[in-house]
Amino acid sequence: MTASRIYGIDLGTTYSCISYVDEWGKPVVVPNFEGDLTTPSVVHFESADNIVVGKEAKNASKVDPGRVVEFVKRNMGDATFSREIDGKSYRPEEISSYILRKLASDASQTVGDQIKDVVITCPAYFGINEREATKNAGILADLNVVNILNEPTAAAICYGDDKTKGDEVVLVYDLGGGTFDITVIAMEQGDIRVVVTGGNHNLGGKDWDDRLIEYLAEQFMTENAGESNPLDDPYSMQELAKSAEEIKKGLSAKEKYPLMVSHNGKRARVEVTREKLEELTADLLQQTIDLTRHVLEEAKGKGIGKIDQILLVGGLSKMPAVARRMQEEFGIETNLFEPDLSVAKGAALMGQKIMAGEMIREIIANETGTTIEEVDLAEIDQGTIAEAAKKATATAGGKFRLPSKDLADMATRKIINVCSKGFGVVAVDAEDGEKEYVAYLIQNNTPVPVEVTETGFGTLRPNQQQVSVRVMEQAGQTQSPSPEDNRLISEGEIAPLPANLPAGSPIHVTFRLAEDGTLSVTAVEPSSGRDLNLEVKVEGVMSQQEIEASKGMLLKQTVS
Ligand code: ADP
Ligand code: MG
After folding, report:
1. Which of 203, 249, 342 should be mutated for ligand 1, with most atoms under 8 A from CB?
2. Which of 42, 44, 63, 134 has CA atoms 20 to 30 A from the CA of 413?
3. pTM of the model
4. Contacts 24+ apart (CB under 8 A), 289-293
5. C-alpha 469 to ligand 2 mean position (Å)
């Protein structure tokens, strides 16, 4: 296989974007057929076999709200969510696959390249099942997902690529359409190391819009006493939602935004000022400040005392209040850094890094008579890598026109992530014998990959036959020992145990969290050496068979 171009996709809650890196190493965003650099993440089931995605779908939400799906990313990985259309129910990953198909097919025709390999981004706080669902959305769209990359890391990669500066610590503040992500990232000699990450996945532009919608409805009711509430009418409601987003965006540039609110044949003239918008949403912005402060404190605990720069990404960061409040609170320079495009560009740069690695590894594999999978660049000396990079660039054709040193640098550049959640097992309090709690083996914000073995667990009763293992992932914003604050991601049993073990016999449990977020769990009863491998079957996502069946069906529908 010859390494081919890998595209970067920002699959956003409200807007999505696709990018690639050209042969000169520059990330380029590909516009869609409507001519826009970003595409609304809105899906309109126009008919049983024609799906419309983007601006037109967003417009259709006004006239055909029952057949339009928005903000589906908020339900990614949620087993209980599905949307019923024409008697068929669609899972979040299926709906998301249409968005990916629209991006890939528009870009494919514009660039004249078949798009197959992609890096898709997701919020840093996405847990195992949300990541798995994101990956499955890619598979359902007939794409090969080579990596799921955290959005703030992608933004930092893009920022780091643009600068020829020295080492810097940046705080990425990403306030998007439905989610808020905050991350501290250290850039050290081209390497990118995530230090801490936090956020709230239910805080974003939609909440700002909702406040405005309520305000507009109130104003309408004040002017038209006795009239019904526009919020109770789906059509007026859609109209208000559209106006609210326009007002919010408009007020980033203007001080006042006058408009007509109409409902039931009545109208009201409303003028919203920037000041009013800020007043209506002050507590929302305050939540982002509090979360930022929390993350900064955690970073301090990890030895990061000083932040050099705040990168503001995400469409909502364009509101002047964001930069102003950040300045007031933290006194750190803010940089509104390509808020709509930097995540997709960073994903494309990550794709290019992966491609560079493949090109070099392929050459080394050929020369040493091994397979590409067996070549680990971390174990190979610089000289060999430099030689291979020379050969790779010489045969790269139009794919790569930079000096071979750049290819080698890219391939060997380190990107170190942390896990955003803690992982543990349910244990029983030995004193109490009843009370269950979650014992964390991997703490949140631990650099990955990581392997942890806990030797402190033991059997509860004499001659116990089996031990059940329940693997849990932190579900809330902070770790908590109460099982109900955690999500069960897999369970299994160590059985049969050797006969006549006394109570309190040790059971060793090992967690391995890979760079790509996959978790494997093993447990061993040390006296017999009997072990158990728990396949971490992710709950709440589609199974392999379901994906195959669905893919066949979905790919028959046209997406435009
Ligand atoms: P996501 O990645 O979550 O899809 P984005 O980062 O693209 O979101 O941000 C989308 C949000 O930003 C939407 O709520 C949109 O209304 C808002 N937005 C876009 N441009 C502006 C602007 N100029 N001023 C204020 N909000 C904006
Ligand atoms: Mg985003």
Report:
1. 249
2. 134
3. 0.90
4. 289/325, 289/326, 289/329, 291/180, 291/182, 291/198, 291/199, 291/200, 292/171, 292/173, 292/182, 292/326, 292/329, 292/330, 293/329
5. 36
